[in-house]
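Retro notes, structure queue

What went well: the backlog is down to a handful. What didn't: a couple of records were mislabeled last round, so from now on we paste the full input next to the output in the thread. Example, using Sugar porter family MFS transporter from Gluconobacter potus:
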Amino acid sequence: MQNRNAPGRLSGHALTNFIATISATGGLLFGYDTGIISSALLQLRNQFHLDTLGAEIVTSAIILGALIGCLGAGSISDRIGRRRTVMIAAALFLLGTVVVSSAQSVAVLVIARLILGLAIGAASQIVPIYIAEVSPPERRGRLVVGFQLAVVFGITSSFVTGYLLRDSSWRLMFGIGMLPALILFVGMAFLPNSPRWLALSGQIEEARAVLRRVRLSDEAADRELEEIIENHDVQAPWSELAKPWVRPALTASVGIALLCQFTGINAVMYYAPTIFADAGFGQDSALLTSVAVGVGMVFATVFGGWAVDTWGRRTLLLRMLPGAVVALAVLGTTFAMHLTGGIGAWITVAAVMAYTIFNTGSLSVAIWLVGAEVYPLSCRGKGMSLVAGSHWGADLLISLTTLSLVQRLGAGWTFWLFAGVNAFAFWFVLRYVPETKGQSLEELERRLRNGTFAPVDRAVARSEARAR
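Corresponding output:
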């Protein structure tokens, strides 16, 4: 039996905190590399003579790479393990950062952003799973949300960096990302494998050893391992996700992933400086105001990390989404009434800040957590690939069309449209997203198998369908 109190050897909550912190560095890179483009784009447009389409392509290249990366990462993580897959993502972060920082043409810039996208997609797919599979049920929410906190901290860091380096080269803005990529690669080399992946791979004693390190007692670890083995199955094919018993998990997780983007959060994040400039702020003031948006996202995510384990995932979403609807309605009104400059500009800032807090503190907090929780172990990697793929596919569509949408509909109608999608998201959560707070991953799998997973009982749903 291992000595849990060996000097210099982390165990229990200390080890799970360390695992979550190192792993979440992938989220930091995720946020920084997606967010820095909003500041760098102001310089890139001038240096490479980019028109609106060119700016959208450079912005969106990283999203296309992320879409490819997340869809491929599921099968890879099932074969070689969660930890090694994160290390591959870290290596891609390093490569992409070197290439983007030295790009001399638009083509190389786009290729480099694609490489970074592969890394981001892989990280978004596997890091939440890795943390969820290591964490105890009562702490799983806040630890997985730590990944999203790292994402928004990375976004905020990119806004701060963009402002501080506004008179320096955009190459330095991108190059700063090499340090956290190196930390992620080296740090992951010292972390244990996921005990659930080990068990699924038939490495039962190795899984027991890891669980005994990350739980408060050997007895608790052994009980959890027995529960894992009881629900143990071989790796399932992609077709398993289409089976009726898995479908409620697919609906809830993919729905949240799509709505996280269609409600407009990344559209606001990518083009925040442009929105503020159109509202009457100068370029420097627009960049500085974007920093405030990033800070708001950090505080909203910290709050969400507390709320998911206190209120619950579903309750958090239902309490926060109405605020996002109101904020976007106000934002749309300020643009429709051309309230730019003076008090109108500050109403715009307040509306963007409020929307950012309500949306980031709800859907953006829940997306990776719910996706990592709801799938059965046998197809968790593939299920999370679909969650991440849905997220990045929707993100690609939004980032490619936001500026064009604003030009055709006007900013007012665009934000009113996003307000309507947020209202729809409230209804979707009410009907399809269950509460997962405090339940083990194996308990959630049992709920899927016995038909009690969805908040609306299947029999009730069938009765309502017949009535219609």
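Agreed that this is the format going forward. Reviewer comment attached to the example: The first helix runs from residue 12 to 35.
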